[in-house]
Amino acid sequence: MRLITISLLLLLALIQHPLWLGKGGWLRVWDLDQQVNSALDKNIALKARNGKLESEVRDLQNGTGAIEERARYELGMIKEGEIFVQLLANTGAAPLQVAPPPASKLIPHSKAPAAKDPAR
Hints:
57% of the residues lie in helices and 5% in strands. It is mainly alpha-helical.
């Protein structure tokens, strides 16, 4: 009787081994499921990034607002007739906003006429 019990337990252990540790076992399935979830999260983030880039491309192709914004911030250009003001110190006060005059061309601020400093 004891030999039968030991042999049945041994057979049970041999049957359980592929279930837990084999190629299609529970641990492998759990690991693959974690990899799939990670890849799905990464895909969602990349789709959001692609959507943002796609809308930026559409704006650059169809409208002049995005081109003007890039020229202002990345190239430091201003419209003709505008005055370039650069504040160096943070005084804690709200920044002064001046409405630019309407113009059709952007020019580099280094070529724009310099504004007179009222403090001098």
